[in-house]
Amino acid sequence: MRRSLQAVPLVLCGLGLLHVSLVTDLYLRYVKEGMRPLLIATGAVLLLLGLASAVLDRGREDGHVGHDGHGHHHSRPPRVAWLLLLPALSLLCYAPPALGAYTAARQSAKPVVHQGGFGPLPSVSPLPMTLSDFTSRVREDRGQAIKGRVVRMTGFVTPGDGDGWELTRLVLNCCAADAQSVKVRVHGGPVPPADTWVTVTGTWHPGGTLGTASAPVALDARTVTEVPRPTNGYQDALPPGETPTR
Fewest Cβ atoms closer than 10 Å to its Cβ: which of 27, 121, 230, 232? Predict the structure, then answer.
């Protein structure tokens, strides 16, 4: 392999990073939104390093004929180095899909974050809620404000064992490697295919004591509607325009 061609993996990696972070929003499949400037900078540096390396190595090759002044051949890099092209080409030609039901089904649900006191819920019905807020209300709100309320939540479908399936969100701390799942068991209604994004309306599925750890984080579905995947699916947030009002 010519020395000047060793720069190809660097150039392709740089182009791949710039493609997913600058030209498209594919980077949101792998990292949080705030990482975009770092990805753009890294892609630009790799691209410049690759181009500079190619120019410098080409200049050296023009002054040599494949061996030094003592008749010894220059060492050649191993052919396995070309395997570095595969991840770079994947970013340019086929970006790996976002995490989904396969990952969530192999994880335990993210622990409930203690919120302390709970204020009154808005009177709007159905009440838009995130999966995290619903979980906290079910497990910690001793006032049982969620009881009998019709709520609306959005997430993707994870097949469940036994009765029902799980409405799921994956939440990132930094990147896809540290994703944690938030799940709500759904009873009743149609069962969409795995990884389908849906909006579900329904009421809390009774069991245990509401407001304690014995209460199931579950919903009796009234409607299940397929929706497009959000641009940034790695956060447990309300869809745009769904901020509840009193």
Answer: 232
